[in-house]
Amino acid sequence: MRQIEGAAVLTAADMRAVEQAAFEQGDSAAAMMRRAGQACAAAIRRLSAGSEVLVLCGPGNNGGDGYVIAATLAADGHPVRVAALGTPGSDVAQQARAGWVGPVETLHDTAPAPVLVDALFGIGLSHPLDPAIAQALLVLIAAARLTIAIDLPSGVDTDSGALLGCPAPADITLALGALKPAHLLQPAASHCGAVRLLDIGVSAPDTMQVVAAPALPMPGPHSHKFNRGMVAIVRGRMAGAAELAAAAAMHAGSGYVALLGSTIPAAPHALVRRKLNDESLGDPRIGALVVGPGLGRDDDMRATLERALATDHSLVVDGDALHLVTPEQLRARGGQMILTPHAGEFDALFGSSDAGKLDRARAAAQASGATIVFKGADTVVASPDGRARLAPAASNWLSTAGSGDVLAGAIAACLAAGLDPLGAAAAGVWLHGEAARRCGPAFIADDLACALGPARAAVAGAVPPR
């Protein structure tokens, strides 16, 4: 088992394509199932600490994995029982069933066990879980000390993270070969418990990955405030929002941060305050320009946004600015842009939809030509070229006023430091989550901005200074 940071994330179709490619290279479905089941059995044996294990096997290949798990545990002398939901439907699952020589109980009549293994559906479910099956499963989960899901808990949609009926919550989910979107997207992610990745001998592409600790530039002997990255932030109607973004950019490593639209000296004195005019907006040293935090939505602020869009700077567009622009305007503008909408801002800019968050973020990136950071209890980062990064769960205490302004500043610092938009967005999301972890409970956005410093110090500088 290994931690999931940086791991590949595959949709159900992507996973099947990876498996098919392995078969074309001479692998077999039976060998792959054997590897998956044996890897799961090794993890379950350690986690169960000698307690009896009840393996629930479904009719598909997830159930086939379950039979291999049970047979492997039994061969090692571990107490194990099997309960099934019907007979295996595929040849490879039937072969796995033949390898289990013990009795097979029925799901509805089986007795509980201290350790429950859910190998009913995995990534194969596309319709709501039958209520009778869900009820039987929930009874067994309630009686178990530990519930382990194989690949995915039964009752969640693999690609969208939606709940299919009444899902079966797991304490631990063993992901096979790669992470799936449902491991990271809400509400399914909250039903997965701790997710651990098992190697089953397949090679997964890295187009979509879990957000990981970034490699960020560290100052060297030739560094100065400007080549470390200059961030400029447009001050709007609510000055505090822009100041939070500015503080975040400073603590996230920017060498020079300017607040445009305010000239009154105030702490922190390291923040440069300049008038908002053509000269300050046109400063060629600006590595990233942030517009939108606390901006306001009146005609004057719309004109301010248009001035920012008219520059050739790399942009981070947040907050109110997302209500004052269209995807067509952004695509026509071109250049490096990162948009950071929460759900309401996303709907205002791109329209509402019942599609999954990942699909919506990718479509928005293509429509706008910008990298999208679709924020929330789960966060999806999507690039116009189709690449994506999914963030693992962060602190629920991030649901506080100003935390989005802090994220915008952190992303801008990474963008000004020279990272590409997808890398800068993912790095900012990671720093934001790590800062929240370090803050503990009941923090405010000011605390979060300050905690970006220790979070930034925690990552190694694998990128050489410019």
UniProtKB/TrEMBL annotation:
(6S)-NADPHX binds at residues 61-65, 122-128, 151, 241, 294, 342, 405. AMP binds at residues 375-379, 404. The keyword Glycosyltransferase does not apply. Its cofactor is Mg(2+); K(+). Residues 15-208 form the YjeF N-terminal domain. It catalyses: (6S)-NADPHX + ADP = AMP + phosphate + NADPH + H(+); (6R)-NADPHX = (6S)-NADPHX; (6R)-NADHX = (6S)-NADHX; (6S)-NADHX + ADP = AMP + phosphate + NADH + H(+). It comes from the Bacteria. Residues 208-459 form the YjeF C-terminal domain. Catalyzes the epimerization of the S- and R-forms of NAD(P)HX, a damaged form of NAD(P)H that is a result of enzymatic or heat-dependent hydration. This is a prerequisite for the S-specific NAD(P)H-hydrate dehydratase to allow the repair of both epimers of NAD(P)HX. Catalyzes the dehydration of the S-form of NAD(P)HX at the expense of ADP, which is converted to AMP. Together with NAD(P)HX epimerase, which catalyzes the epimerization of the S- and R-forms, the enzyme allows the repair of both epimers of NAD(P)HX, a damaged form of NAD(P)H that is a result of enzymatic or heat-dependent hydration. Belongs to the NnrD/CARKD family. In the C-terminal section; belongs to the NnrD/CARKD family. HAMAP family: NADHX_dehydratase, NADHX_epimerase. This is Bifunctional NAD(P)H-hydrate repair enzyme. It comes from Sphingomonas hominis.
